[in-house]
Write a structure and sequence with these properties.
globular; binds magnesium ion; alpha/beta; binds 3-methylbut-3-enyl trihydrogen diphosphate; Undecaprenyl pyrophosphate synthetase; 6-stranded parallel beta sheet
């Protein structure tokens, strides 16, 4: 089976899942966070090397303040648990998004987690927090301008696609091969717009806390049967595959 090297997931439907069980939305977030751990472990077992999950968007600050605080508290606990899991699984963890808007203690936990796991050679696990693709691209362009002003990049050098990629939060991480969105919405919600230029999309009605290992396998099997052409014809791809 052709297993994707990098899967990106929009973890959606925590609230609806909880509501369907007569529980508060925050219960959905708690169970959703637990499911992230299961999926990280199983993704690695299936041969997936990179996993990037959307946990909190730049737009999610506009939710009711008690829900935002509950998510931030859950994140505090999650980051601690993640350090233990990373130790066991040898997971290398990186947070993408604008960390500067997060509470100082959360920023510190993230820095500690990234430092502690930076040389681990298991799953590369990216968590998107206060992440928005437009914000990320805008920050990347401003970083390039600042480096030009400082002379780190020659003032007359043209901006290239590589230069933009290298200044994104995902610098050094290969583009996702497969993007999964749970819970029935069929949109990107400002997620990895640059990186998903050639990514395969998979949408499912299952809510994130109920997205099991079998559901992950289903998504990977579906991906595996697709023909990725990258602009070429189907015939070209077939003959290249025969020659491998
Ligand atoms: C995803 O679940 C988690 C976050 C966006 C933080 P939602 O909270 O969006 O759940 P629904 O979509 O309202 O059901
Ligand atoms: C996208 O989900 C963001 C995350 C999963 C963190 P939302 O539930 O916030 O997206 P919209 O608002 O329905 O597009
Ligand atoms: Mg949602």
């Amino acid at each position: 089976m052709n297993v994707p090297n990098h899967i990106a997931i929009i973890l959606d439907g925590n609230g609806r899942w909880a509501k369907s069980k007569g529980m508060p939305r925050t219960y959905g977030h708690t169970m959703g966070a637990k499911n992230v751990e299961t999926i990280c472990r199983e993704a690695w077992n299936m041969g997936i090397h990179y996993l990037t999950v959307y946990a909190f968007s730049t737009e999610n600050w506009s939710r009711p303040s008690d829900e935002v605080s509950a998510i931030m508290n859950l994140l505090r606990n999650y980051l601690k648990t993640c350090q233990k899991t990373a130790k066991q699984n040898h997971m290398c963890v990186r947070v993408i998004g604008d960390k500067s808007a997060l509470a100082p203690d959360i920023q510190q936990s993230i820095a500690d987690l990234e430092e502690y796991t930076k040389d681990f050679d298991g799953l590369h696990f990216q968590i998107a927090l206060n992440y928005g693709s437009r914000d990320e691209i805008t920050r990347a362009v401003n970083k390039i301008l600042a480096e030009k002003a400082e002379g780190k990049i020659p003032a007359d050098a043209p901006v290239t696609e590589e230069m933009i990629s290298e200044h994104l939060d995902t610098a050094g991480i290969p583009d996702p091969d497969l993007l999964i969105r749970t819970s029935g919405e069929v949109r990107l919600s400002n997620y990895l717009l640059w990186q998903c230029a050639y990514t395969e999309f998979y949408f499912t009605d299952i809510h994130w806390p109920a997205f099991s290992v079998d559901e992950l396998k289903k998504a990977v099997e579906n991906y595996s049967g697709r023909s990725r052409r990258f602009g070429k014809t189907g015939e070209q791809v077939e003959s290249e595959e025969k020659n491998v």
